[in-house]
């Protein structure tokens, strides 16, 4: 079906059902990141979202689920004609059980709004992807987004206890429940967390919560030898200390976060706990750093520490960012935790050799390394070469290199997802069972799912 056919025939039926104020066209909306959709449908209820999905089935049109659109640069370009189904107006906190430490929110609820509501009761959702003011609950779950505090708190899979999901035939299902203890059996939540909107449209999320920690600190250390920082990191991880985050960073990250000259590499260590515990942990890290000959550049507490982590999260580009954000490439490298420091070092020196600006950081306790490349107009081929070299070395070590964010023309130069995961055949079977016609986000996910 061509875009003009869609415009002239089926869209009019959808407008009759929902009204002109909820069905809008934005010419060229998705071209920058490879979306096939200029049409956006703004559902204001789950029932309206069901109508859109049933209409899509009747009209043989694909659906691109979306919250605020920050993830438009993720994944492969969509391979079929589609409409964007925006859940941005489903943005209410519907139930907060303070005593049970659970909360239920609509999928379009912003993380920043949710955290503000929870803070009033001394609670938090312990997930920290960057840009909370444009991250929605549904988007965080669908893309399994995390931040540096993944080390202490884990991933969305660890905090989701229930979902409401619309399947391709318009059926609404509930997975899990609204209490922490549910009936034993297969955890259907895990099927949809990280499925990238390819199996169904999430309309509601129920999360477990934690009390807000009374004290927070972040310690920033520097050294020209990444191995010295790695030794300190291992010492902390092997001890009784409980860091919330440990990130090896390169000098570009340090220069962005703090003014002045910096060593080639740095280590950012966070703690969150009771005041006495945080004081003890900070003092111990400073002592060990001095023993290793590592410079303590800065220690920040509470609001200052939180502000630094927020700024740190904003290093990642997104699809709603400025023109400079659109020209960036974000790469995620997954390795064994002990290999993260080597990955940061490798990418730093490769980028330096090739003359490309790169901000790189890696979790020494998680094995997740992120690199943000900002090639100049004549450096896209060089950026491709850099990623290919990194991918070859990482995949030799059985790791993965995925392009999280890039303009659509760059995705035509190099595969987004890298090597095929071992479980792809099983993913295809699940996709065929839940979305047999490939209605949701066609071709966008790994293996063209």
From TrEMBL:
Signal sequence annotation: none
- Tell me the ranges covered by the FAD-binding PCMH-type domain, including all copies: 32-212
A Pfam family that this protein carries is FAD_binding_4
Which controlled-vocabulary keywords does the entry list? Answer: FAD, Flavoprotein, Oxidoreductase
**Which InterPro entries does the record cross-reference, listed alphabetically?**
FAD-bd_oxidored_4_C, FAD-bd_PCMH, FAD-bd_PCMH-like_sf, FAD-bd_PCMH_sub2, FAD-linked_Oxase-like_C, Oxid_FAD_bind_N, Vanillyl_alc_oxidase_C-sub2
* Listed GO MF terms: FAD binding; oxidoreductase activity
Domain of life, per lineage: Bacteria
Q: Which cofactor does it need?
A: FAD
Q: Which Gene3D superfamilies match?
A: 3.30.465.10, Vanillyl-alcohol Oxidase, Chain A, domain 4
Q: Can you name this protein? A: Glycolate oxidase
Species annotation: Polycladomyces abyssicola
Q: Which gene encodes it?
A: glcE
